[in-house]
Amino acid sequence: MSAPTKVVxxxxxxxEGLPQIMLKGVGAVAEELLSRGIRAGKPxxxxxxxxxxxxxxxxxxxxxxxxxxxVAVVLxxxxxxDNKRKEQIHA
Length: 91
What we know:
This protein is an alpha+beta fold and 91 residues long. It is 51% helix and 14% strand. A two-stranded antiparallel ribbon has the order 1-2. 5% of the residues are buried.
């Protein structure tokens, strides 16, 4: 039997501090959050090890220095996808 799905949502505004954990869910709640995010066109990154580490952190907490580099890579990827999507909408 596989482990239940977990999801962690990050909030980040460039130039306004470190990314923060804005939502967490497990099981059916996580599946619903993923489904809503995909329907809304939100980028979804599947990185089970990172999700597990972030899931252990309290809500509204900023990520620590030990995760900054990997989260920065993920956010750069997400921002690039978001910019590409916006360009396609306005093309």
